[in-house]
Amino acid sequence: MKYYPVCLDIRNRDCLVVGGGAVAFRKVKTLLACGASVTVVSPAFASELAGIRDDALTLVRRPYESSDVAGRFLVIGATDDEAENRKISRDAEANNVLCNIADLPDACNFILPAVVKRGDLLLAISTCGNSPAFAKHLRQRLEKDFGEEYTEFLRLMGALRKRLLDTRHAPEEHKPLFEALINEGLLEMVKEGNTDEINRLLDDIAGDWLEGSCDYDTLMDSGEE
User: Fold this and answer.
1) Residue 135: its pLDDT value, please?
2) Residue 144 within a domain
């Protein structure tokens, strides 16, 4: 199987999860964290799932019905009944809806990779369903290699990019500047918390491009707006 890699914007999208156990809980948490509007259908809900307090979450306590998939952007089947999960898949296919069925790759029209997330850095690992255990192993290795410094680094780079765009420079003009910041060790400076060196590097490389201050604290504060 060859999959097309993609990152979906599901903010305010209407998503359905069928199932009320631990697997459904994990799927719901991820969907909510990405800004989706989530409906969960199940005859019963685990305490963790029932305990979520989020205006974007609706719990419907009853058995699944085929009509539940109508109009959804995305559907996840997470019941412990394979026959029902396959029915969810068929219903989603009939409605041209994105569908993932837990532990049944052949019943999915998309699969979920193992993920390492550091702020806006997203690393996805997939074995195309051949070995979820190995995908997990790789995720754990990458979690050690990619620390929280990547969160701060990308916040800084994003804030600097916004400032540069606000000066009306063409985006393609910025490429050498960002490459220079990376090659001169900006990430390592962020990891070490060396703001004096960061400010020196920013001034040397980006100072002539910007109006006003481009120091670390100012850029990071603007990145929180």
Assistant:
1) 93
2) no
Q: How far apart are CA 188 and CA 179, in angstroms?
A: 14
Do residues 157 and 104 share a domain? no
Count of domains observed in the chain? 2
| DSSP three-state, residue 100 | strand
**Ranges assigned E (strand) in the chain:** 14-18, 37-42, 57-61, 74-77, 98-101, 114-118, 121-125
pLDDT digits (tens, 9 = 90+) for 75-100: 999 999 999 999 999 999 999 999 99
Ranges of the chain with pLDDT below 50? 225
3-class DSSP state for residue 51? coil
As a whole number of angstroms, the distance between CA 89 and CA 108 comes to 7
For 13-33, write each residue's pLDDT tens digit.
999 999 999 999 999 999 999
Radius of gyration of the chain measured on its C-alpha atoms: 22
Residue 44: domain span:
14-112
